[in-house]
């Protein structure tokens, strides 16, 4: 049966959501389909205004019950002090029933990230999220190098992402946009992820 894939993101300024578009294109290129959800905002309106956050995109909100309907997930996570933001943590903290029942056990997940800058914790954001996956029994699918060696080996261009997953840099003040290499890496992650899970029996 064709695996059901959800792309789930939290994105304050749109960088993660821009990568999500490429991730989805990659999944579709590989013959799959994905539904894009967003994680519920937890900050008050006034704080979001002070942070110059734009209005949220028109995406369905993820809930634990909705997540459990999918076989595999691609999780878009912007760095906060080198790990996941409180909005993502609040979502995972609401999955106690699924954790107890093993409702996500044996499903698959890949992770893509964004950070302000180089050394800002792209890899640590993925690695620290693995603890959540492990406790749920979710199988982590890395990007690796095989399908994106040329992009990852090129150190002449400033680029986010790593074998842990695609990534982009927002820059100081968030004004930088994902570049061609970052969007391509995200697309490759989408297609590689789908090709990894397409023959798994769920
Ligand atoms: C409270 C806070 C903590 C942050 N911590 C980090 C960090 O540890 N490293 C980093 O490079 N950027 C950090 N940033 C910048 C965000 O990672 C950046 O705004 C985000 O990746 C942009 O993605 P988005 O547009 O999808 O929200 C932080 C931003 C905020 C508001």
Automatic annotation (TrEMBL):
The terms describing its cellular component in GO are: membrane
Looking at the record, the residues that make up the Flavodoxin-like domain are 5-193
Q: Which domain of life is it from?
A: Eukaryota
InterPro entries membership = Flavodoxin/NO_synth (IPR008254), Flavoprotein-like_sf (IPR029039), Flavoprotein_WrbA-like (IPR010089), FMN_Rdtase-like_dom (IPR005025)
Q: Name one Pfam family in it.
A: FMN_red
One MF term from GO for this chain?
A: NAD(P)H dehydrogenase (quinone) activity
Q: Which Gene3D superfamilies match?
A: 3.40.50.360
Concerning its family, UniProt says: Belongs to the WrbA family.
Family matches, as PANTHER family:
FLAVODOXIN-RELATED PROTEIN WRBA-RELATED (PTHR30546), FLAVOPROTEIN-LIKE PROTEIN YCP4-RELATED (PTHR30546:SF23)
UniProt protein name:
Benzoquinone reductase
Q: Which organism is it from?
A: Oidiodendron maius (strain Zn)
Q: What is the lineage of its organism?
A: Eukaryota, Fungi, Dikarya, Ascomycota, Pezizomycotina
């Amino acid at each position: 049966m064709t695996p059901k894939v959800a792309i789930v993101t939290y994105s304050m300024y749109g960088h993660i959501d821009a990568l999500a578009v490429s991730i989805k294109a990659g999944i579709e290129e590989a013959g799959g389909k994905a539904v894009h959800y967003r994680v519920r905002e937890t900050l008050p309106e006034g704080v979001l205004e002070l942070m110059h956050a734009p209005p949220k995109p028109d995406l369905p909100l993820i809930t634990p019950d909705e997540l459990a309907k999918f076989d595999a997930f691609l999780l878009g996570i912007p760095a906060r002090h080198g790990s996941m933001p409180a909005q993502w943590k609040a979502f995972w903290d609401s999955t106690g029933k699924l954790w107890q029942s093993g409702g996500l056990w044996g499903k698959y997940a890949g992770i893509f990230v964004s950070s302000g800058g180089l050394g800002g914790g792209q890899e640590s954001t993925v690695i620290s999220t693995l603890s959540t996956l492990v406790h749920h029994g979710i199988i982590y699918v890395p990007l690796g190098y095989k399908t994106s060696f040329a992009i990852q080996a090129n150190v002449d261009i400033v680029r986010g992402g790593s074998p842990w997953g695609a990534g982009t840099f927002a820059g100081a003040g968030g004004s930088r946009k994902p570049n061609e290499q970052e969007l391509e890496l995200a697309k490759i992650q989408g297609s590689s992820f789908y090709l990894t899970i397409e023959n798994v029996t769920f």
